[in-house]
Amino acid sequence: MSDLYTYERFTPGAVLGDWEEPLDANLLAVWDRLFGAQAQDAPARQAGLAVALMMRAYLNIVAPRPPGNIHARQELAVRNLPLAGEVVRSRVRCLDKEMRRDRRYLQLEVSGKGAGGRALYTGKMNLIWAA
């Protein structure tokens, strides 16, 4: 088990790690059970899957986390949709950190790429860090 991710461990500009997630039949079956498999909403389903992939990368890379963090804001730019069967490679990095009114603010970025380095998404998360 690695050390707890405390505020002091974050350095603006530093890569925290990479995460690979295959969009295999098992993951897509779970997604279908949750949201249905209607062909008419395929782009919306795949964009939602991009959000899930971003969060899974964050949760797996930035771990363990102290209890009490607040996920204050999130934005996501989707460039291409993830495709069944490809491996999505996500990179988590610290964009910025600052203290405001005795609170620890972090801005993290998660960027995902598909097969051949095809850009999929870039997400930014603003967090108030507990410790």
TrEMBL record:
Native organism taxonomy: Bacteria, Pseudomonadati, Pseudomonadota, Betaproteobacteria, Burkholderiales
Name assigned to this protein: MaoC-like domain-containing protein
Species name: Achromobacter veterisilvae
